[in-house]
Batch of 4 targets.
Target 1
Amino acid sequence: MSSKIVPLHPQNKTTPEPRRLTSSQVYENTQVAFQRTELALILNVYGQMVSQGEWKDYAMDFLKDRAIFSIYRRASEQPLYRIEKTPGLKDKQGQYSVIAPGGLIMKRGHDLKAVLRVFDKMRFRVTR
């Protein structure tokens, strides 16, 4: 009894190379989100402002082109500030920005920690 061994991949035919995707093609159909380290920085600032009684609530939105962390004084209002991550601006002005209620961009940059310095105690003093 003889058996013939048949190779699974014929040696005379070349198999095509797997198609390599660029980073923009990989993330094309997904949504943008904050990474754990970015979220830790944002929540650190948020926690400080909550302990001072300035902020009460937050919301996170994850869209195709940006991730938004909205900060509220009360849940029924429009956001006081929005912290946005827009990867499409990474090579231009910077992907992180802090936006005031009227749409004014208070600070924009490549480093989230530097952008969040807009909320430092001395710059963000509230008079009553």
Target 2
Amino acid sequence: MRRAVYAGTFDPFTNGHLDIVERALKIFDEVTILVAVSPSKKPFLEKDKRVELLESLFKNEQKVKVDSWGGLIVEYARQNNINSIVRGLRPTGDFEIEFQMASMNRKINHDCDTVFLMTSEKLYYISSSLVKEVFNHGGDISPFVPTIVLDEMLKSRG
């Protein structure tokens, strides 16, 4: 079985992320969406809420699992017998950082390869940080996130 992990803070999960998952599902038999916990970041939505939203969003997709992790992604992959890491690439300077991270991951776990998927040309400009910026300034983020994510963000605004 071809299994992959797609990791990120997903704060919030965007339509760009959704596009990467949907395309990864055409390549892999199972994709684990891993909500990565970064001690250096202060999330807009708490980890458990992000996990809950992703579980709801993919409740009808048998090939998707959702989990969270606070350690190295390659260690998660090793512990869960996953041999591929999926990463999305935007034409905004992602390549150098992603290449360096993929090389380091391969050095740590030589059984795990990184698969890069180019972000759709319709979505390449979307990033979680920009979505939060627009949202925090009262802008409409409905074109950038799944409805379930939008609803939760609006609820958290109060």
Target 3
Amino acid sequence: MSVPKPELSRPIVVAALKPAGETRHVTATPAEAAALAQRLGLEAVRDFDAEVTLKPRAKGQVVLRGRLRATLGRLCVVTLEPLDEVIDERIAAVFVPAERAAPGVELSVAPEGEDDEPYEGPGFDLGEYLAQTLAVALDPWPRAPGASLPPVVDG
């Protein structure tokens, strides 16, 4: 079975990164935004934009720091009316070669707020990382302003 191509693919080859680090800007095309919306069960991804700094470290590690911003079309869980959800997240991670992420192998000492992200091969997919970050940032119960459930009446 083949692995489907990520909706927002931006491959990073670790050995090709500048030693001093570099900044990458990722903006979803309309087709990528539509595919992300479908994958995440959203009405729409209106805007998706991220700016990250990638800094290589020893032993194939890469420190990522940046910001992810998105405007999403959602449905209110109470009224089912359309609403916009705005995501504005600071992101930080340390990408680590998978062989160093094996059980019992000490990973990098990531400062608070950074996650270790194992990768295989020569690099990782920045776009897929950003798509997963967006999925985690979603409000599980989006509500329109002022929307509330009626009080529960017993008996």
Target 4
Amino acid sequence: MKDVKIRDLIFLALCCDIGLFAKRLISPFANVVTDFLKIPGGIGTSFSLMFLVIGADMIPVRGCGALMGFVQSMIMLSLGMTGSMGMLAPVGYIVPGIVIDLVFYAGRKTGSDHAAVMMAANMLASASAGLTANLIVFRLNGIPLALYVTVELISGALCGGLAYILVKRLRPLTRTMKKNETDGKCLSEKNMEGTRS
């Protein structure tokens, strides 16, 4: 984390914030589906985790998924938005962050397809969030649990695909920003050399 720039940390913080509040926005629509299926949730969580996947992909620093999950959990606690998990809510955010880190680490080691890695990260993070919530609160078993995890996996795959599309759009912008920053540094160094001479 020592080599991470302030700009990158701001981007990660932005991903945390957008993820939290995007979940609040989509929850009413997602609840229509989950209420029909008689399961606690899943779709909103997958959409929220999509932004952590984007952050972990754009800023490939070891442990940034877990860090974003921790930051999200602290924001939730400070705002009193813990939901049914209460004080154990941080576990439900940190575990998916760790899963995102592990999937990206495995993907980079094996040289897997970029889109597949992002989809797998979102899928498995969503499933881990669902299983953590089930262990702490819901205590589902049998068919309801299988349906719950299936919805998490499917919505996670769809959101992972969307994350890949968004990253493809964002990456050229970040490259342009980095190039402008490098050009600016080179120009300032030349000006300093000119003044010295």
